[in-house]
Amino acid sequence: MEGHAADNRKSAVHQGAEVAQFSVVGTRIRQPDGPAKATGEAKFAGDISLPGMLIGKILRSPYPHAVIKSIDTSKAEALPGVMAVLTPDNVAEWKTFDRGMKDMPLVAGGYRVPSEEAVVNKVARHYGDAIAAVAAVDEHTAEEAIELLEVEYELLPFVLDAEEAMQPDAPQVSDLAPDNVGKHLFYPYPEGDVDKALAEADLVVSGVFSTHKQDHCTQETAACVAYLDASGRLNVWSQCQLAHLGRRELASIFKMPVNRIKLMTPFVGGSFGQRGAVCAEPIAVALALRSKRPVRLVFSREDNFLGLESRTGFKKIDIKMGFTSDGTLTAIKTQMIGTLGGYMGCGPMSSVIGMTLAMGHYRCPNRFGEAHMVMTNTPVSGAMRGFGNDAMMFCIEQLMDDAARRLGIDPIDIRLKNAKEPGEIASMGLELESTYMEDCLQLGAEAFGWHEKRTQAKKDEGPIKRGYGMATMSHCTGAAPLYLEHSNAMVKFNEDGSADLTVHPAPVGQHIWGALSQICAEELGIRAEDVHIVTGDTDVTLFEYGSDASRSTYAIGGATLRAARQAKEQMLARAAEMLEVPADRLEVKDRVVVVKGRPDKTVTVAEVCYDAIYAFGGRATNFAGKQSFESTWNSPTYGAYFAEVEVNTETGRVHVPRFVTAIDCGKAINPMAVEGQLEGGLQQGLGYALTENFIVNPKTGVVETDNYDSYKVPGALDMPDSTVLIVDKPDPKGPFGAKGVGEPGMVGIPPCIANAVYDAIGVRLRDLPMTPERVLEALTEKTEGETETVRGE
Amino acid sequence: MFRLLRPFEYLEPSCVAEAVEMLVRYGEKARIFAGGTDLVISMKKRQIVPDYLIAIGHLSELDFIEAEPNGTLRLGPLATHARLAASPLVWQRFPMLATACNEVGTPQVRNMGTIGGNVCKAGPSQDTPPVLVSLEAKLHLVGPSGKRTVPMDQFCTGPFCTVLAQDELVVEIEIPPLPPRSAGCYKWITKITATDETLAGAGVVVVLKEDGSFEDVRIGLGSVAPMAIRARRAESLLRGTWPEAAQIAEAAQIASEEAEPRSRAAYRRRMVQVLVNEGVTEMQRQIAASMQEAGR
Amino acid sequence: MKTVATFTVNGLPHEIAVEPHQLLIEVLREHLGLTGTKHSCGVGNCGACTVLVDGTPELACLTLAMEVRDKSVLTIEGLAKEGLLHPLQQAFVDYGAIQCGYCTPGMILTGKALLDDNPDPTEHEVREALAGNICRCTGYVKIVEAVLAAAEVMRKGGN
Prior knowledge:
The complex is a heterotrimer of chains A (793), B (296) and C (159).
Chain A: E1 12-13, H1 34-39, E2 54-60, E3 66-72, H2 74-78, E4 82-86, E5 123-124, E6 130-136, H3 139-148, E7 150-155, H4 162-165, E8 181-186, H5 194-200, E9 203-209, E10 223-228, E11 234-238, H6 243-253, E12 261-264, H7 281-291, E13 295-298, H8 301-307, E14 310-311, E15 313-323, E16 329-341, H9 349-359, E17 366-375, E18 381-382, H10 389-407, H11 411-417, H12 437-448, H13 450-455, E19 464-475, E20 487-493, E21 499-502, H14 512-524, E22 531-534, H15 552-579, E23 586-589, E24 592-595, E25 598-604, H16 605-613, E26 624-629, E27 637-648, E28 654-664, H17 671-691, E29 721-726, H18 744-747, H19 749-761, H20 772-785
Parallel strand pairs in A: 1-29, 2-13, 11-12, 14-18, 16-17, 21-22, 28-29
Antiparallel strand pairs in A: 2-6, 3-5, 3-7, 4-6, 8-17, 9-15, 10-11, 10-13, 15-16, 19-27, 20-21, 20-26, 23-24, 24-25, 27-28
Chain B: E1 9-11, H1 16-26, E2 30-33, H2 39-44, E3 52-55, E4 65-67, E5 73-75, H3 81-86, H4 88-93, H5 95-103, H6 107-112, H7 115-121, H8 128-134, E6 138-143, E7 146-151, E8 156-158, E9 161-162, E10 169-175, E11 182-190, E12 198-208, E13 214-222, E14 229-230, H9 232-238, H10 245-258, H11 265-295
Parallel strand pairs in B: 1-3, 2-3
Antiparallel strand pairs in B: 4-5, 5-10, 6-7, 6-10, 8-9, 11-12, 12-13, 13-14
Chain C: E1 3-9, E2 12-18, H1 24-31, E3 50-53, E4 56-59, E5 72-74, H2 87-94, H3 104-117, H4 123-129, H5 141-155
Parallel strand pairs in C: 1-5
Antiparallel strand pairs in C: 1-2, 3-4, 3-5
């Protein structure tokens, strides 16, 4: 079967002239895991069954802040089939942890979060905090046992709003933050004198924005299977995106050497950052250790909404930007107040990462930013696709539009004017390796019909007002230099010329196995289907930081490329002996080693590998490469986004009929996979902008949106007609020129839609989500004010 | 937070009479089970914990879609939303009912859920009740003391409350024919996404006299009050008149005042206004156009 | 009280003792080991547990097992025949319509019911049919393309 999959009809790849000719990289291969997933054969954590396995279940607090005075477990324990009950009073033998796993020395420019969360907690800090758990012979018995637990609560005063939590008399959420400010953080790359620059600016645009807590809504809920085997090794099937860090965290909590834990990664039904934190693992492992039986713990959808980290919402983002009259950006000043929830988790860094990426997107000589990340009695905040860049770009790209309008400059031109060029310092404080934002803007504008649409007179469509908007963004490729950036790969040749690649990315659906097989095959001179991925077992894989920060293709791909090169060099050395020419005269393509300039003089890769493995007489060897990759650079990915919206001025509903995304992600290893990331990002960005809303009842602290009946993600009928364009020009440092593309898909969406809404109805929506009520309210204010109202100015 | 159900006893009556006997015997401990799409969710949430489920899904005597020569439509409570939406009998006679059935839940839920369940749940945000109210449908109930008929607008007494006695069963939904020169529609807006719950729904029936004046108008509102209601003040403002845009808008405004929404109240009222205005205007135009067509 | 009943799943009869309160999804996953039917929201909003009951897409997490005793249930495991992927499965693989794969079984089965009923759907009809199946990865673009492509293959009678 040919390895190439179907062509996509609405997207296009625009190759730069300088792109080298590849045979595997750049092709639309099918994913190796496709058939398993299409037939139902693929095993996810919740699909795993072991002999004698128990089912776990969690009891969650019905109050936003309460001391668990006591839990009467007698009725539950008397129920036949109940094998373990965990309460806050019987989990003290295990260490506390920070679910964001940031108590480890991972963060170079960030912070360390002390551990403060127990397997189950004595003080519930938010509605839905885990306070007890059971393991029983089946799920029915586990559910019944949970219902039989009798809890005595002592209710504590609670605070839900970040600004209220900063008031001196507010209830205290955590001992670690007496003033509820969990972290007071600053933009790590300040420059110039921002106040002076703002005072001297020809134009200052500003606004106060807010963003909300978005749930990842992974289709698979959190799940974990754990058991302690007869030899005392802990076997864990974990969805953790950062498998080796997950293993280390479990080793710390349960006081075991890391190599007594075998952490296995099954297929994972989506992650988007949520599995970058500890999820179901601590309770599943604790239940397994206590019951001495295998335990499977699968979260309900409600468990997922309440118990896991979701996107950090910002109560307030106050931004001022200064410009000269020709549209040159001279200053950005940011003040953020973020809502962390009951535990610190990954949330605080979303401010720093967001400011870093967004305030470094454009050339700007004066920059300052500050964030108060505040603890509240609400579910925990953390990282989701975009990690703060989404929130910051929502603000900055709207203000860029404001500036363009005030200065009479086309929105595209003002962005081009301030775009950085290679050689300048990029957002992450490192030299900018490559940027093709101009290409993105050109391609996107052309496909969208930007110039025609923006200049033509608008038709009268009654209550429907049509608008066109655009936005840009850049995002990191990996987290260097702010976080640990360390990947490893092993490549070995088999005797038939096929190869096994041992790596440990998180298989969360991003087509990473396919991309890594392409990088490996391209370098080895074989086909993608010749590469088998060995993965998902910390016993076998070398250390891998994991899949986050849009890094897998870049960093794990980087390690793969190096390891493949090492194996290839060994193979070519042997081939050189067989062909009796120096190795540097050889090249390998499509499974054949050829002497350059002598197409008749060849040997197949299979023949060389067979010769090496089955050689006798002291020359036997197995070609294998093992290489590390620690990035010391970071090539941002750039994107341009174009939206058409219809705003119904009677209902306040915003409909997006058309969307164009143009992306500079370097060389697209598999254009079909890149499109998939951007098309999926559009669904999440659209939901973040318009339909999704994590609502906590302001009086009771109860989460009102704990399932899909109340929390609405866009469905097939809600999506725009989408076009994805790939610039496809290689980055000098990425493997075969690739850059990251996991997060960019969603970052530019909300500001793009907001700018289109402004174009349609002339009002700025500065609060996410842009609900119908907010649209109508803004329209009313505009009418009442008689002149154009720009709130926050 | 629970994914499974607590144990219960599963009863399968062989006919309606036996189902009623079971209801009499088990009283409040029993629930009628048909499509299950609402009841199973309530049972997972432990909002309803029945000891007995009386499964009626297999009773073919409750599963029909029939039309009489005079135009009356008779629906068995087990007719699923999907079948109703696709039924030519429904489409031809009461397209507004087909529209409403097509708006319930997702395609899968429409394949499973029944109109009887939709009506008996009596949730404030069901789609079929506002339509049935405006069509002046009647529910036929059977209990231990025999049959009785209840007009749809007297069936619900509050959110999730009906006049259905513990030992009664809905056995038929009867929709009387519309007079000549009439048309009806269902207008709705969802909470936010396409398959979301309905935020506000309006069943609108307009009957014109030959002179073009409004002989009758019926406006059923859903999702904006504890139960589906008739906007009777708005109706009476229009009845007997030749309303122009301003008067229809005024009626729509009054309809929005008749609504008693709980959450998102201001927005829901505003949407009632939009939907009623749209529905009445469109139906007036539609009938006038077909009268003109017929007059040619 | 347990009832021994015959369930026809993927064309084969299975005699299983079930409790009345057991859901179809439990019987499929726990008794028959057919874990391709996925649990996701539990409240009828996501379509991950979609199976075909007598050819119609229904939700296994809202269906009592007792209710399908006399009916024919098709799960994702029953779709490929003799190791050959169904055209929809093949199109999902070919068009990159599978990312994490968790919604995939429900999507494919819902798509199958659509194409069995309407062999030549428009894009909008595909979207309407899939409106009850949530995907968080693909933005539905490649899923819709795959269903349309599979429809074409099936119309030509191909596999």
